[in-house]
Design a protein that fits this description.
Elements (H helix, E strand, L loop, with lengths): L1 E2 L5 E5 L3 H12 L3 E5 L7 H5 L4 E2 L4 H5 L7 H11 L9 H20 L5 E3 L19 E4 L2 E2 L22 H7 L41 E2 L1 H13 L5 E4 L4 E6 L5 E8 L2 E6 L1 E4 L8 H8 L6 E3 L8 H8 L4 E2 L8 E6 L6 E2 L9 E5 L11 H8 L9 E5 L1 H7 L16 E3 L2 H8 L3 H15 L13 H6 L19 E5 L1 E4 L6 E2 L6 E3 L5 E7 L17 H18 L1
Parallel strand pairs: 1-12, 2-3, 2-13, 3-9, 13-25, 14-22
Antiparallel strand pairs: 4-6, 5-6, 7-8, 10-11, 11-12, 15-23, 16-17, 16-22, 18-19, 19-21, 20-21, 24-25
Helix pairs in contact: 1-7, 1-15, 4-5, 5-15, 12-13
Length: 560
């Protein structure tokens, strides 16, 4: 046994960003903390992410001379983009998140958990929405040297999807792909999304660097590393990897008093207040079917395989409720199998010039450079467009490649279908080939002028900056699909560790039962908890912001 049923001990289930932050906040308020992580590495989905933390009216923007924001503008933006399903938005949770987030981010910086910087020139997703801003709301870490982690550097997940060590400012100039040799571990961008999850490209062993060689960490890996470094300074925090939690322990009145985990020597019990921080349900096919309505042919994940919906399963076992967000609003990316049976891949290629997305009828149906619109339109219950396909030409192949495939390189066998004409490509993929030709002809007519009158591709500042080819004119995401041979593949939606639906909590993180009552002794933070604070609206950085805000809030209560 560890801890005491009535002592000041906190058990955090999951060593992702929100879990580590909860542990730091609790320890600094006098609690002892045990973090139990199911995997052998720490960082969770946050470490694989872009490390964007969206916070309105924040002190970092003001410090950097950006003075345009306010709490009122922030709330107007969140409310406006949540209009698709207003019933999914919890106004009290939204108000708490938006009001406390600036305070929480200042706190994390003040205690030395991170040094924030604003991601330069990155606009809110929904530029048309009331309250949207062109810059200032996205925070990430100042570069941190991984050597500060000591032996824990080898146990930190490193993103294979971003050029870790490069800053956002540098990436916006160089692009998501970074030039260099093909052998360096941790280059992330060159192998963007191309590896099977859990097979290769987990954490490089200290990047193979000499001890006196700088080890710059950025993006989600850097954000997590910053918090992990602070947690390692606290003797009251114990982090145990390879300790999956199998059960929540309860007292005679139904309150949660601890957990039963699987340790190296067998089952072990830990007593104290429990905080679920297990992230989402990406690798649980049953929950994917229940919460997203997608089968294995239409869904995969780029999140760590340890994300099995454990928080939902554990909470449900003690009477916890699940709150559901419409699948049309869940953050998912268009992706593909990196090779038959070898996992999933994604990259910015779907948004680059000389590519389009079509349905089985050979028609475009959305702004196909913008995942928000792709998800909403493809999964529209009244007008669905599954299956859907990425189509591109030889210009795209020569300029951009695909995932791990370098520009002009050979595609993995069994992944990409190629043909000399669009009609033949359509027939090979099970698409109406005649209509595909017509669709491309109509698209090309406007794309050469940098326009898309049908679906407004190329009009969103966020997409242009984050996904586009800055060197391509007249529009970074628009170019004709005209040069043979032509290429295509069937897409699927890839989870990112942000399932939106999840454990139902109140505004301060208490897990609620089916009657809306708090279950004593149990909180949830991070993406295992339903994102009711944003409802059916989403913007990159919402999840990490809400997670760090809840971590701050929950730690305050537990420390009290």
């Amino acid at each position: 046994m560890a801890g005491s049923p009535d002592g000041g001990h906190v058990i955090v289930v999951g060593a992702g960003l929100s879990g580590i932050a909860t542990a730091i906040g609790s320890a600094l308020r006098g609690c002892s903390v045990t973090i139990l992580e199911a995997a052998d590495l720490v960082g969770g989905a946050a470490a694989y992410s872009g490390g964007q933390v969206w916070v309105g009216d924040n002190h970092v923007a003001r410090r950097e001379g950006i003075e345009d924001d306010s709490l009122g503008l922030t709330e107007r933006y969140v409310r406006d983009i949540a209009h698709a399903a207003p019933e999914a938005l919890d106004p009290r949770a939204m108000e708490h998140w938006l009001t406390v987030a600036p305070e929480a981010m200042r706190y994390w910086e003040d205690i030395g958990a991170i040094r924030w910087t604003v991601i330069p020139g990155l606009a809110d997703y929904h530029a048309e929405a009331d309250g949207a801003l062109g810059a200032g709301r996205y925070l990430t870490n100042e570069v941190i040297d991984g050597r500060i982690l000591g032996g824990w550097r080898e146990r930190l997940r490193v993103s294979p999807y971003f050029p870790v060590g490069t800053t956002y400012a540098e990436m916006f100039v160089e692009g998501r792909r970074v030039s260099g040799d093909d052998s360096g571990d941790g280059d992330g961008a060159r192998h963007e999304g191309a590896q099977g999850f859990g097979l290769t490209r987990e954490a490089p062993k200290s990047s193979g660097r000499a001890e006196d060689t700088p080890d710059p960490l950025t993006f989600g890996t850097g954000v997590v590393a910053s918090f992990l470094a602070r947690a390692l300074q606290e003797k009251a925090i114990e982090i145990l990897t390879s300790h999956p939690v199998a059960e929540l322990l309860r007292d005679g009145e139904g309150g949660v008093i601890g957990v039963r985990a699987q340790g190296e020597q067998g089952p072990v019990e830990y007593y104290g207040h429990v905080v679920l921080a297990t992230s989402s349900y990406d690798w649980n096919p049953g929950l994917v079917s229940e919460l997203l309505g997608l089968g294995p042919e239409d869904f995969g994940s780029i999140a760590p395989q340890s994300l099995r919906g454990d928080g939902i399963t554990l909470a449900r076992a003690v009477g916890g409720a699940v709150a559901k967000i419409p699948p049309t609003s869940v953050p998912m990316l268009p992706g593909w199998e990196s090779a038959p049976g070898a996992g999933f891949a994604y990259g910015p290629e779907f948004a680059k010039p000389h590519a389009i997305i079509v349905d089985r009828m050979g028609r475009r149906f959305c702004n196909d450079s913008y995942w928000v619109d792709i998800v909403a339109k493809a999964l529209d219950p009244d007008d669905p467009h599954l299956p859907f396909f990425l189509i591109w030409d030889e210009q795209h192949h020569r300029k951009y490649g695909l995932g791990a495939v370098r520009p002009g390189g050979d595609y993995p066998e069994g992944t990409v279908t190629s043909a000399p004409t669009l009609r033949e490509l359509g027939e090979a993929l099970g698409i109406d080939g005649v209509q595909l030709e017509n669709t491309a002809a109509s698209f090309n007519e406007h794309a050469e002028r940098g326009e898309d009158p049908d679906f407004d591709r190329g009009t969103l500042d966020y997409v242009l900056r984050f996904y586009g080819d800055a060197a391509h004119r007249p529009n970074p995401v628009l170019g004709s699909v005209a040069k043979p041979p032509f290429h295509g593949l069937r897409l699927r939606f890839l989870g990112t560790g942000i399932g939106s639906s999840g454990v139902h909590i109140d505004e301060v993180g208490h897990v609620l039962d089916e009657q809306g009552k708090a279950i004593p002794g149990l909180h949830a933070v991070g993406s295992c908890a339903a994102l009711t604070a944003a409802g059916s609206g989403y913007n990159s950085g919402f999840a990490l912001s809400r997670g760090l805000t809840l971590a701050y809030t929950v730690a305050q209560e537990l420390g009290a």
